[in-house]
Design a protein that fits this description.
single chain; 573 residues; mainly alpha; 69% helix
């Protein structure tokens, strides 16, 4: 959604600390066991904070509830528990603690949202409107409150008032698309197709390339109102922008067959859920993940089957390295959903991140057999096998993947590049070179292909001028990519230009200071220009950066005897 620019300042001044006060989670933060209760109120509180720091909201809720048993009136604990329960997807329980979150600032906004949503769920639109009308319109509330209040007024049958309220969403530059989309949805729900069409046309004019949810809303409207010809360009653009997604093609086929689909908003309650989801999507882009998560959980409280919101929740959890929790959400998406396939691919990616490689491989292979018309599952499997240095197996998977492509075009350069790497690493250079050259035919200036092929030629002592030119072109496009800069330095090294090699490799180490191979390369270059002490320092540094077994053996020899008794290090990138 196009609210990035105008939301930034509001977020900065909103005081939305969420009463958490927690540190960022890390990949190795252990998941806490909720059944291990602390022996004291203080212990339970500290355990809860630690769980919050790990983004383990379920465990944090258990610990904080335990702490509250001995101090039930502690407002700070109740506020923390309110946010933890919302983030954990337990809004019904969070209602009991909303009173503690009703102070000024972001807490009050979210507490009012939750209590208003409870009124909506009970069919009390007037009660929801009264509560929301009391909220301030400062900072982020300038955008959020009119968006939510407009849908509440629509639920109360006040269409004109709702449209007037929603107009305030677009008063700040950049929010017009959000305003026009939701005004269109409200008008369409109120059986005002002409007015809805005007709002949708305004949204289209402001943002011709739309995300899927907007394509669904506006394209579906055109189909239902006998304007399928206007829907087709939307679907075509989406299909071209997302070539690996089957959704664009499904939409095009539906339009060609003259079929229609129900509106994405069948009630004001659905519209309110959409509004919270769209706003959360914008917040997530602003890196306000915790608030985005809470708003999306509220959207799902209104509409549990909103699969786009489920995908957003899972994505946020994944970014916070809660891979197990993310997979639970991904796996809850209905098999018939358009998002089901993408969700399963994300499950496989998370399994790989959790080092459950066998499970990830089994899932991707099963998906590859299930849909022989798709290449994405096998392409992801090939990448995983490459990461595990199972290069021959990766080649076989990429071969199968490319057999499924009827016509290789520009978008397939990455498949050829990936297979080329697997072929080169499995000592099948002739085939690898052919793949790299074909990839460059499709994307002549692709920096990663230029880098890999150019270096490979220089490393073999062939096509030296052309190879060096390729690497230079790659560096011009990616001057801050440490691996590509390393290739330029190492190419100079292989050509005997040791002074230039040291110059570029120093830059590469600045860009990638903890890469063992790049540090090794710089050590070699230093040795060749007579900077022996600095060479040994770099090799020693590389030795402490977890090099693989082959490089570790080379480093040990270099530290003992210098380059006279050992081969130069491996190439980087």
């Amino acid at each position: 959604m196009a609210v990035r620019t105008s939301l930034t300042a509001a977020l900065a001044g909103a005081g939305l600390s969420f009463c958490l006060g927690v540190a960022a989670a890390t990949a190795d933060t252990p998941k806490l066991a909720p059944d291990l209760m602390a022996e004291s109120t203080v212990g339970a509180y500290l355990s809860g904070r630690h769980a919050m720091a790990a983004n383990d909201r379920e465990a944090a809720a258990v610990y904080l509830k335990e702490a509250l048993k001995d101090d039930p009136q502690n407002e700070q604990l109740r506020r923390r528990l309110f946010w933890v329960l919302l983030g954990a997807g337990q809004p019904t329980e969070a209602v009991d603690y909303a009173d503690a979150a009703s102070s000024e600032g972001g807490d009050a906004t979210v507490a009012a949202l939750l209590l208003s949503i409870e009124r909506v769920r009970a069919g009390d639109w007037a009660g929801a409107e009264q509560r929301l009308a009391k909220l301030s319109r400062s900072n982020i509330n300038r955008f959020l409150v009119p968006l939510v209040l407009g849908w509440v007024q629509a639920g109360a049958g006040k269409t004109d008032e709702a449209l007037a309220t929603l107009k305030a969403v677009g008063e700040q530059q950049g929010n017009g698309i959000l305003r026009d989309l939701h005004c269109g949805l409200v008008a369409e729900l109120a059986k005002r197709p002409e007015q809805a069409g005007q709002f949708y046309a305004a949204a289209l004019q402001a943002m011709p390339r739309m995300p899927l949810r907007m394509v669904e809303a506006i394209g579906g409207f055109y189909e239902r109102t006998g304007k399928a010809a206007e829907a087709k360009p939307l679907y075509q653009d989406y299909a071209e922008d997302n070539p690996e997604s089957a959704i664009g093609q499904i939409l095009l086929e539906r339009a060609a067959q003259g079929k229609t689909t129900p509106p994405i908003v069948a009630s004001a309650r659905d519209g309110l859920a959409e509004a919270l989801f769209h706003f959360a999507s914008a917040l997530q882009q602003e890196r306000s993940a915790e608030f985005a998560l809470v708003l999306t959980r509220l959207a799902l409280h209104l509409r549990p089957d909103l699969d786009a919101a489920q995908m957003l929740v899972a994505g946020i959890l994944e970014q916070q390295q809660r891979n197990v929790d993310a997979n639970k959400v991904y796996q809850s998406i209905a098999p018939g959903s358009w998002f089901s396939w993408s969700a399963r691919l994300r499950v496989a990616s998370n399994l790989e991140a959790m080092e459950k490689f066998d499970d990830a491989e089994a899932l991707l292979r099963a998906m590859g057999k299930e849909r022989t018309d798709r290449v994405d599952a096998l392409a992801q499997l090939g990448g995983m096998l490459r990461t595990k240095e199972r290069f021959a197996e990766a080649v076989a998977v990429y071969d199968d993947t490319l057999k499924r492509v009827d016509k290789i075009d520009k978008r397939h350069w990455s498949l050829l590049y990936a297979r080329g790497i697997a072929l080169e690493r499995s000592k099948q250079w002739a085939r690898a070179e052919a793949d790299f050259l074909r990839a460059l035919e499709l994307q002549p200036d692709q920096p990663y292909v230029l880098n890999y092929l150019g270096y490979s030629w220089i490393d073999q002592g062939i096509n030296l001028d052309r190879g060096m030119d390729m690497i230079r072109r790659a560096v011009e496009q990616r001057p801050n990519d440490g691996y590509i800069v390393d290739s330029l330095g190492w190419a100079h090294y292989r050509l005997g230009n040791y002074d230039k090699a040291a110059e570029h490799l120093e830059r590469a180490v600045e860009l990638r200071p903890v890469d063992p191979t790049i540090n090794d390369h710089l050590g070699d270059a230093y040795w060749k220009v007579g900077r022996v002490l600095e060479a040994r320092f770099q090799w020693k540094r590389a030795q402490g950066l977890k090099p693989d077994a082959e490089l570790a053996s080379q480093l040990e020899k270099k530290l003992k005897d210098g380059l006279t008794a050992s081969a130069p290090g491996q190439r980087g990138g």
